[in-house]
Amino acid sequence: MDFSSSFMGGYGDAGETQTQMSTPAKQRDAQREKEPGVTPLLIDQLNKAQSGVPGPITYCGQTLRRVHLVAKVTSADIQGAQANYEISDGTGSLRVQNFLADMPEFAEDDLVSIVGEVRNDKDFYVSVVYCSKVVDKADVGYHKILSLHTFMNLTQKNKVVVAPIDFSPVKSSAPTQATQDFKPSDGPIRDQIKKFCDTSDEVGKTLADVLAHFKGADEADVKKHVEDMKDSGEFYETIDDNHFKAI
């Protein structure tokens, strides 16, 4: 996965990200991400670590100071020097506030990378320290790998006991009965497939679901679009290798 256009992540001893930017103009800001305590997380990991009680948040035995998130903006409220965003990465949603005048502004559906300080006093949110738009959608999948790698590093380092993972096969529900003939008038088939897979169902869709839904489209063409969107990071896998959702 090419991270050259935005972030190239690595790990220190405690699982912090280290970032290199592609242009000198961004390298000063990127140094902020090299500071100890910047932890790459999925939003679900952060939300579960927040117990609902005000005060410091501990994740796998480590107190969270700054976190690195990659997600899509689902709502944006910009008022003067303050910007409030709701972001989602498919695992959960979170409120983010930006009080920095020199940071870029985002719009709904922008894919963004955010480093911020965790606030958990009266309200729970992340305060932006550095942010940028994600150029390469493969960064989404790469960030998920970083987040899981951090989890493993911290549980081993801090000897955190975690519940055993249930590897029992998950029975997927039968493909939806609602099918439709592909209509070119509804837009490009790739866009229609992505819209169909942009579901609130955590399990996601399978290739069989997509083929059944677009029964009038060329099967080889549908399969190619699904594989292309998996490779580009527009789709991410959910419960197993066969289920996926749109980011």
What is the fold's blueprint, element by element?
Blueprint: H1 24-30, E1 38-40, H2 43-49, E2 58-59, E3 62-63, E4 66-79, E5 82-88, E6 93-98, E7 111-120, E8 124-133, H3 138-157, H4 189-197, H5 207-213, H6 219-232, E9 235-237, E10 244-246
Parallel strand pairs: 1-4, 6-8
Antiparallel strand pairs: 2-3, 4-5, 4-7, 5-6, 7-8, 9-10
Helix pairs in contact: 4-6
Shape: globular
Tell me roughly what share of residues is in helical segments. Answer: 25-40%
Number of strands: 10
Strands side by side in the biggest sheet: 4-5-6-8-7
Query: In the CATH classification, which architecture of the largest domain applies?
Result: Beta Barrel
| CA gyration radius, whole angstroms | 19 Å
CATH H level of the largest domain: which superfamily? Nucleic acid-binding proteins
- Write the element-wise H/E pattern from the N-terminal end onward: HEHEEEEEEEHHHHEE
What is the CA-CA span between the terminal residues?
17 Å
Structure description:
The chain is an alpha+beta fold. The protein has 2 domains: 24-157, Nucleic acid-binding proteins (OB fold (Dihydrolipoamide Acetyltransferase, E2P)); 184-246, Arc Repressor Mutant, subunit A (Orthogonal Bundle), CATH 1.10.10.10. Helix content is 26%, strand content 24%. The protein has a 5-stranded mixed β-barrel. Strands 2-3 form a two-stranded antiparallel sheet. β4 (66-79) and β5 form a beta hairpin. α4 crosses α6.
